[in-house]
Design brief:
The structure holds 3 protein chains of 3 kinds.
Chain A lengths: L4 E5 L3 H12 L5 E6 L36 E4 L3 E5 L4 E4 L4 E3 L2 E4 L3 E3 L5 H4 L4 E3 L3 H12 L5 E4 L3 H12 L4 E5 L6 H4 L1 H13 L3 E4 L3 E6 L5 E6 L4 E3 L2 E4 L3 E3 L11 E2 L2 E3 L5 E3 L5 E7 L4 E5 L5 E3 L4 H17 L1 H4 L7 E6 L2 E7 L6 E8 L4 E8 L2 E8 L9 H6 L29
Parallel strand pairs in A: 1-2, 1-7, 2-3, 7-21, 9-16, 10-11, 10-16, 11-12, 19-22
Antiparallel strand pairs in A: 4-5, 5-6, 8-17, 13-14, 14-15, 18-19, 20-21, 22-23, 24-25, 25-28, 26-27, 27-28
Chain B lengths: L1 E4 L9 H5 L4 E4 L3 E4 L8 H10 L5 E4 L2 H6 L1
Antiparallel strand pairs in B: 1-4, 2-3
Chain C lengths: L7 H6 L8 H8 L3 E3 L5 E3 L2 H8 L4 E2 L20 H9 L12 H12 L2 H21 L5 E3 H6 L1 H11 L6 H13 L9 H27 L5 H7 L1 E2 L3 E2 L2 H17 L1 H14 L1 H9 L4 H11 L6 E5 L3 E3 L2 E3 L4 E4 L1 H4 L34 H18 L4 E2 L19 E3 L5
Parallel strand pairs in C: 2-10
Antiparallel strand pairs in C: 1-2, 3-7, 4-12, 5-6, 7-10, 8-9, 11-12
Helix pairs in contact in C: 5-11, 6-8, 6-17, 8-9, 8-12, 9-10, 10-11, 10-12, 13-17
Classes of the chains: A alpha/beta, B alpha+beta, C alpha+beta.
Chain lengths: ~425, ~70, ~425
Amino acid sequence: MRDGTIVVAGASLAGLRGAEALRRGGFSGRLILVGDEPHLPYDRPPLSKHVLTGEVAAGATTLPGVGALDAEWRLGTPAAGLDRAGRSLLLADGTRLPFDRLLIATGARARPWPQADEARLAGVHTLRGRDDAAALAAGLAARPGRVLILGAGFIGGEVASSIRALGLPVTVVDPEPAPLARALGSVLGGFMAGRMEASGVDLRPGTRVARLEGDEAGRVRRAHLAEGGTIEADLVVVALGAVRNTGWLAGSGLSADEGGLSCDGACRALDEAGRPDDAIFAAGDVARFPHPLYGGRPVALEHWGNAVAQGAHAARAMLDGPDAAGAYAELPAFWSSQFGLNIKSLGLLEGADAMAIVQGDPGTGRFLAVYGHEGRTIAAVSINAGRWLPAYEAPIREGAPFPPITGGADQPAPAPFPPGLPSMQAA
Amino acid sequence: MRVVVDLNRCQAYAQCCYAAPERFVLQGDEILAYDPAPPAAERAAIDRAVQACPVRAIRVEHDETAERAA
Amino acid sequence: MTDTDGTLFAQVRDPENRADPYPLYTRLRAQPVARQDDGTWVASGYAAIRALLHDPRVSSEDLPPAEHPATGNPIKDFFVNPIKDWITDRHRPFIFRDPPDHGLLRRQVMGQFTVARVRGMKRRTEALVDECLRARAGATRFDLVDDLAYPLPVTVICEMLGVPREDEARFHAWATQLATALEPESRNDEDLRARNTETFDAIAAYMRDLIREKRRAPADDMLSGLATTKDAQAGRMSDPDLVATAILLLIAGHETTVNLITNGMLTLLRHPDELARLRADPERAPRVIEELLRYEPPVHFRTRLTRAPIPVGDVTIPEGVPLVLLFAAGNRDPARFPDPDRFDPDREDNQHFGFGGALHYCVGAPLARIEAEAALTALVARLREPRLVEDPPPYRAGASLRGPERLLLDIRGIA
């Protein structure tokens, strides 16, 4: 199809790149992008890094492509419901937008602190959008006496790194035994812990916060630990991961929950019976799709690269049909930078039962680790060694015997060990 | 001008830093810091950075309307 | 369609095919990774080259293993080994090293190849180009190689390194002499080999003195920096490493850039519409230069050595064999570049191998771009009605560092 009306719910990276791909693919009809924020699509990765350090303004990351895109923008009006039978998207302001095709790219939001009254205390932040980053940057500019970060995942680590770069005292609390343990395993997590502590972070692994306490003015003052004791803080960043924005799909009959909107390899949304809807597609953080490289396991990837590639894939399927598009099989990849380290990852580590450091040496701060599952290579992570990573694309794609690539330069004999990842069942 | 770098692609070859040193800087070994909204006057330098990138990770959109108005 | 001719790479090296090796590359790519009759393996497909470039089993310390029959090794005939043979007795420069040494040495060089220093050469390079063109004012015939492309990079790299101006002439002579070692025949020419060894010893002795002088009175140049800076991990670079590095930079900064400029002008003269567009809009130069690096790269291949068996697609390259990464063939791979034999500066997503890639990506790339831009924009602007006297021009012997020996142009003067 090349004409008619296509509505894109979600005006961020996946929605923008999907819309661009539609135009590039020859779609000449009406194209409407709906966004809950009042902003044109902007880039998020700098928000936890150079925006917090003040090197980049929060409002400066509008994405290239928005100027040339021939589309109607409905910004600041969240999608509120979906009338599948009537092929219409319902907006919060009451507007009804009929469509021939719908691309759902509503992404995710920061998981809030579970106690709503505590989450409302002044000085308690989450970080997901541009406005969040601006508010947090303003809070940091007031030079708080101590910052407390709840959660030592990628966002928690990046925020902690930025705050240390500003010279502010920071404490990081996480129930896991090491930072990034859920994502990279406790072995790499242990390495990161050393870096964080060397950078002056007061790291408290294996620690839970039970509640946040504010003063009479409603400003956060301290956190009470589940094990007893308190941590004083006048700024708290809640970095507990994200939940997918699927609440607005309630009652639509689509298979959606906090973990994402289920779709097939051609990005078609699935109904509760698992049947694809030929008019409704999903891409980006919100899309939970079966990954062929990982046995068709449903995954929803909060990756920048996934938003770009899946947006384009959905566009292809919308224009030329699911068969022409084929099954979406992009090799998962992401990066994070914190504490002077550039962390790059290929593949999915989830479920890895072995890892090996196959190039470089953690002692020098430059190395590459590979991850295996039942004797097959499933992922690789480089630390300040990004130029080594492309060699592992093919072994991961092909599920090569683990460990792959041995006997090369600067390759100590591989000695695989458990990566310290949570088991699949537990995860 | 709007700039975004695909940091999955980026391998820290630093060619952009030579082309437009005011807008691209390597921090440490391979963390690229860049200005996502450089002034229109730096168009030539930014275009050089785009061309010089060995992995073509830099995307730019010039805001023609804004530039004409300026 | 599989081309089973195991002599294709030998044909690439045959000077008869120097002017146009591209049809051979097309035949080689029918098998993206192929064994040649002499035991060499050649990677010519884009995807294979990219993967192998990043693969730690592909070693740059490519001295063939002793058990490899000497007669079956064509690499011995290449430009690299004659130079390497002298140097390995001493210290190999970092392009012939693997991690972790490579990383330490390269980082120290990069530390001196600063943005400020490289960009500082831009104006200077433009002035040098102007000098070269003024020197030939009024001429009606111009040899691009002798009159500009050859002298320019030597002067630039000498100034970067910090070779005193009065010694530059000696460097020109040394560089010219060492360049003969790049020719395969030098292996069999005892006199030539002796002269080259003598030259190498002379440069090395000169460098040692110069380094001592830089330590005594450091100036704002690369050699002073290398001689006096201590790396946090590697400490101060040893004198033999410093000498090897300096000689490498001299040769690499020179034998390659001459080809980029000369191949560049040749290509533009063969595509007059593109020459006219560049003349009308010098801002096109960065695009033109990147496309030149794809279409007519200064370095066509590099030879490495496999440290372990490497599976690539449905073949496995054995351990201990010379492996040629044929960048210039990957640059013309239709699976990667649409319409690859078309010279098209407006090409998007031009991820060429013109400067190699991965750990060994050309250190001097930013400098080469500055030199090529200064030279090409000045040439198209100032040579009046340039016309090729010979097409194809005569080529130097090198199959890897491939470029014209001279590029004669008839002109109606220089503006």
